[in-house]
Design brief:
The complex is a heterodimer of chains A (244) and B (264). Chain A is mainly alpha-helical. Chain A is built from 10 helices and 4 strands. Chain A has a single domain, classed as Transmembrane di-heme cytochromes, Chain C (Fumarate Reductase Cytochrome B subunit). Helix content of chain A is 64%, strand content 7%. Chain B is 24% helix and 25% strand. The radius of gyration of chain B is 27 Å and the shape is elongated. The chains are: A mainly alpha (244), B alpha+beta (264).
């Protein structure tokens, strides 16, 4: 009889998959808006490293001259992005799921070990319950980035009526720059996320659809993980003294 | 530092033993539901894409934009002022975008035409407008395209203008205002509609000076609207006619798919 581990509650799966098309629409419509005035680039002295974006990029995606359309989609789907985000954060608190997500002081050391393991510079992965340190930091950061996008978004959307918010995030132009930088952040996260999902394999991927992961007793990797995760001791262990 | 006891350890994930068949059934069910749910965003996209245009934008999008306007108008406050800057921050060469409504020469006999009622329009000269108190404003002009520029404008408050000539009120009831102000260029090539609350904002000007000089034709001579808490597209250049209405006056860019309100 196979043993399954219940990994993602139904609500988490819904939040995750609703966010996917909504964020896609926000990034795409944001690009239609950004096209109308696209001053950002990364320069090194006089040398332009990256220009956001070259004309060929806009042409390939067909975003030219679609500002009105971009604004319409953006100002409609911002509500879904906001609502999904607020419900998600609320749910993680109510359900206690936040304990799997919020990094603690061990997470950063663990993240380094995980990265070394991912790069093939370390033989074993450190043990973890649901997400390893690197995942916790990444997923928690993405959540904070979502908050940042909403705040800077409204700061640009209503800089007079929400003048305090616009001032809080550094003014109109700074808010727009942060809003754009966060979007680039989502795209980079998405690329790494997809790569990691492919690496982690099918059983991991299907758990974000079914909610559970099937443990195979004959799987050497799985057996090792099970051994490394002992039953919760009656007294919580003290924080690793190496860090104190 | 005393080592803290972690009182909220990360809980273990619950595990259970299930027969192979049950696992397979639950997996299929979840994937089936997932496939079904995936048709929802596709359906939403097709529904919006195939909707008729309402006033330049797809109907469902326009509906939400209008709802956004309702929300914005409920928290709109004339007490919220656009941030102002010291005079020396103003651009020496103010940017200007767009020639709609300016393609025909300014009529030599230009007068500001204001509809009061059918029989009795008001015609005003620049001298009439200049008798109103002049206000100067150095603020960050914002274009719907995303750029902004600090500019220095001078002119009469639209609120003062409406007050002086008793405009915008309903016939027979001087205390009730129309909901909208419509403005158009003399050649009717460009036109905007503004909600009355925004028109009465203390920073909304009938502007005739830019950087202390009479504004140029390209910037909307002889008089234009500066409504700093709306995007530039609502700042009608070269006003020919002003009128009042309880329904939204037609709006050049809203007809081309933009949000009608465009309030900042």
């Amino acid at each position: 009889m196979p043993r399954i581990v219940h990994k993602h509650p139904l609500a988490i799966r819904w939040f995750h998959w609703i966010n996917f098309p909504v964020l896609f629409v926000m990034i795409w419509s944001g690009l239609l808006i950004y096209w109308a005035y696209d001053p950002y680039k990364i320069t090194l002295g006089d040398w332009t490293l990256i220009s956001f974006f070259p004309d060929g990029f806009y042409k390939a995606l067909g975003v030219s001259r679609r500002l009105a359309e971009g604004m319409a989609w953006h100002f409609v789907f911002m509500w879904l992005f906001l609502l999904n985000g607020v419900l998600y954060v609320g749910y993680t608190f109510v359900s206690g799921e936040w304990r799997h997500l919020v990094p603690d002081r061990n997470s950063f050391r663990e993240a380094v070990q995980v990265t070394l393991y991912d790069l093939g510079l370390r033989k074993t992965q450190p043990p973890f319950v649901k997400y390893n340190g690197a995942q916790k930091i990444a997923y928690f950061s993405i959540m904070l980035m979502g908050v940042g996008s909403v705040l800077t978004g409204y700061a640009i959307y209503k800089p007079t009526q929400f003048h305090w918010l616009t001032a809080l995030v550094g003014g109109y132009e700074t808010a727009r720059l942060i809003h754009f930088a966060l979007t680039i952040g989502y795209v980079l996260f998405f690329i790494v996320h997809i790569a990691q999902v492919i690496r982690a394999g099918w059983r991991n991927f299907q758990s974000i659809i079914t909610g559970f992961e099937v443990l195979k007793p004959d799987d050497p990797e799985q057996a090792m993980t099970t051994e490394q995760a002992p039953e919760t001791p009656p007294v919580a262990p003290p924080i690793n003294p190496a860090l104190s | 530092m005393k080592p803290a006891i972690n009182t909220n350890p990360e809980p273990k994930l619950p595990e259970s033993d299930l027969p192979e068949s049950a696992v397979r059934r639950q997996t299929l069910k979840a994937f089936g539901l997932f496939a079904l749910a995936a048709t929802v965003p596709i359906g939403v996209y097709l529904w919006i894409k195939n909707s008729p245009n309402l006033y330049g934008a797809k109907k469902p999008l326009r509906r939400v934009l209008d709802a956004n306007e309702t929300i914005a108008r409920t928290y709109f406050s004339n007490a919220n002022l656009v941030k102002t800057y010291p005079l020396d921050r103003a651009a020496k060469q103010p940017r200007q975008n767009g020639y709609d409504g300016l393609r025909t020469p300014l009529p030599a006999d230009w007068k500001l035409h204001v509809d009061r009622d059918e029989q009795n329009p008001l015609y005003l000269t620049m001298d009439d407008i200049r008798t109103l108190p002049k206000h100067e404003l150095v603020y960050d002009f914002k274009c719907v395209e995303g750029w902004s520029q600090i500019q220095h404008w001078g002119g009469a408050r639209l609120a003062d203008f409406l007050e002086r000539y008793k405009l915008g009120t309903k016939p027979g009831n001087a205390s009730e205002l129309f909901e909208y102000v419509g403005l158009e260029t003399p050649d009717k090539g460009y036109y905007v509609g503004i909600d009355m609350a925004s028109a009465l904002h203390s920073q909304t000007l009938l502007a005739y000076e830019l950087n202390g000089q009479p504004i140029s034709n390209a910037h909307g001579a002889p008089v234009r609207l500066i409504i700093p808490h709306k995007y530039g597209v609502k700042n009608l250049k070269r006003i020919g006619r002003i009128f009042f209405s309880d329904t939204r006056p037609r709006d050049f860019w809203a007809e081309r798919g933009y949000d009608y309100y465009l309030g900042l």
